[in-house]
Amino acid sequence: MSRWIVSTSLLASLATHFTLAEETDDCHSQPLEDTRVEKAYHYLNSKFCQPALWFDNFFVDDRITEDARAGTSVRWYNDFIYSEGGDVDYSTKLNARLHLPFVSKRLKLIYESVGDEEFLDFFPQDSEELENALGLRYDAYAKGYSSFNIKATLRPRIEARYRFTYPLTTDAVFRLTQRVYQEKRETGEITDIDFDLSLSDDFLARWSNFAGYNDDLKGWEYGTGITLYHYLSQDQALQYSATITATSEPYNHYEYSQVSVTYRENVWKEWLFYEIIPRYQWEREPYEKHTKEANITLRIEVLFNNV
């Protein structure tokens, strides 16, 4: 199973690379007039030609959606997961951001499928852990290199998020995100630090790190990950990733690690996407040996923006 998944990912990479029919733009990372996700994200967009903006846009990364200040967005995706051993699982997730008429554009109605884990960027969520949450988000500040917003949902949960993005050079970007939240009786904080390096017009490397503490766990959770993005065309891209997360409770040990390849393509209509994600992962519970599993995911996604 694992050999087949590795072979599938390599063949997908080679096949898509040699079947490109169009030339890449000189700076494909710059948002176009008909871009699928709003253009007004950050001061950085208008000052630099960073591939990170295109990749985060295309893969609908949280780094983009959390700073999006205009319009309406609805994202619904369905995952079909085939695991080593023959098990087939299905999960669905819906995220929406709706502009409220007759009120400030800074205020949005949000609907999210969220999990108990806060570190969504580092590993996929099990559908059994997801809960639906309706709430409001207020984009209080977005100027220069900084942005700040407040989000409240009916879980109940309230969260304040501050982000600082700074271009170290025209090819390297530093990003700091700080979150403080209160959920029911649990208080916690999460710190994310990213470094983006543009290797060329077609390749971007990202090193992501996080550390989080909450008074329910009374300990730290932390992790690191490397992602390589590969631009194929305006409708196709690849993402190679390796991540690991760990905890300090009841002792320092890793909880989850994975290596994966994601192929994403926009097909038929501008709002329809699919992804193929072969993955090999390791998990470990305290005082137990780690378990490992190979799986492959087919994701069908519907994405509407400014509807």
TrEMBL record:
Taxonomic superkingdom: Bacteria
Signal peptide limits: 1-21
Keyword Signal tagged: yes
Key words, A-Z: Signal
Keyword Signal on entry: yes
Protein name as annotated: Porin
Originating species: Vibrio chagasii
